[in-house]
Specification:
The protein has 416 residues and is an alpha+beta fold. The protein folds into two domains: 190 residues, no CATH class; 139 residues, no CATH class. The chain has 14 helices and eleven strands. The longest helix has 44 residues.
Length: 416
Amino acid sequence: MLLYLRLLSESFSFAINALRNNKLRTLLSLLGVTIGIFSIIAVLAAVDSMDKKIKEDLSDMDMNTVYLMRFSFGPSEVPRWKREQFPDVTYEEYEYLRRNVNGIDKISFNLFTRNESIKYDSKTVNSIRVKPSTEEFFDIEPVKIEKGRLFTESESNSGSPVIVIGSEVATGLFENSDPIGKKIRLYGQRFTVIGVLKKQGQGMFGDSNDVAVFFPVNFLRKMYGDNSKALTPAMLIKPEKGIDIEEFKAELSQKLRSFRGVKTGEIDNFFMNVLSGFTDFIDNIVGQMNMIGWIISAFSLLVGGFGIANIMFVSVKERTNLIGIQKALGAKNKFILFQFLFEAIILSLIGGIVGMFLVWIIALILSSALDFEFVLSASNMLLGSGLAAFIGLISGIIPAISASKLDPVEAIRSGM
């Protein structure tokens, strides 16, 4: 054990001397390892951070929640030309399904539309996400209220001009004053502010309820009707707990097909996007991104490996005389082999540590600048260290073997 500790100590000393005596050569040789480790750890950290954020944002939602609409969340076998002919879901269909499908816990009707500007007196806040919905939406995608309340079922049914605003909207329009009861203008109409949401932070796709407003969907339906091209209707359906999701989807499909008069043998002219299927789709994308990161990084790691091998071959040549003396004094081939192997691993680890340090610095900067937490996990750091050590081991094995097989007499003579 003491022998190996001595080996490590001497190898570390030789590695540091190589850095000191040949700064530029060593720096250029280690650059490949640094870039390779930086690339793979940066990709893994970014993907892990995105995955963590998605799971956090979806943690309050039931994974069996169904998004019923004319569009699919993921790839579809239905030809594009056929999908474009699908009709939008309607409010009448929402009311029909609400009454006739068993196993529904909550169902809401929503309209997706473009961002708008909101005014209060002389102040205007632009690019606000508008979320018209029925009141059940808040039970399907829970939001947290800081002040006031959410709109009620009667306000939803009648399309009352009441509105719940995000924290940044409240700050932009009212600064430090209380927004509750104030009148704001949207679509040229006056809305009464009845609630303010707690600050949420950035969402999984860069969206956030902090810059969103919620109001009864029937208000917008009364303004634009049900055929406006600027509006995309969707139903959000939360099934009862413990229900068989496939049976539930089958009944839902059968009832909507019957209501629409879709004939037997014809395909569904709507999509039922289940949230769990959406997360599977995201996991697939995450896996592909990881693979791409590994492929890109492999080239840098290959270059880094050649760089380490170059350092070690030069190191063997420069220390040939010292190797001969060590062997003459009784050092075994194994001792010389491990000495150079450890040195290669230490040099590679130094390059890897620099790469991981750069990832950590960039993660800190981006986390503070983008209000998005980039996670550099311990597992990724261990992976980076292990990968760097492996590159050092592979790159140093041939120079180490050549050093261990040197004839002591010839090695000493070469330095004279």
